[in-house]
Amino acid sequence: MTPRIGVYPGTFDPVTLGHMDIIRRGAKLVDRLVIGVTTNPSKSPMFTIEERMATVRREVAGIGGDIEVVAFDSLLMDFAERQGAKVIVRGLRAVADFEYEYQMAGMNQQINPRVETVFLMADVALQPIASRLVKEIALYGGDIAKFVPESVRVEVVARVEKIGRKGS
User: What pTM did the predictor assign?
Assistant: First the structure.
């Protein structure tokens, strides 16, 4: 029997508790989950792709199951094809996410109809969390402990200290 392979793509800059929720739940839906770490040209990453991959690998280590973390810099559907994936896992936080993700899923289906997109609603308590907002809160000296794993909080705070806090 061919294993069901899924891809969960993102920038993970930084990985949040919301990401971890989707990873845990997505891993139950497939035999192998490939977490695709990429760089979005419209975003300014706080961490390098290597740092983000190392962080995601560390955070998923205790989840169990067949989870792999891979960098990619290509069309998502080309990456999914190279991984042998038949499923793209996407997390949804709000209606605004759905509108964007629905459009992307439609475009992706036009590019590669052999790969389906599966949407998972984020846990209600985690829905407001966004990496962009986590970074902004940290850059202004706010506490991000409720939004990221503790080891990620430590890394973000150290990076903010290195690059300098805003508003100070």
Answer: 0.93
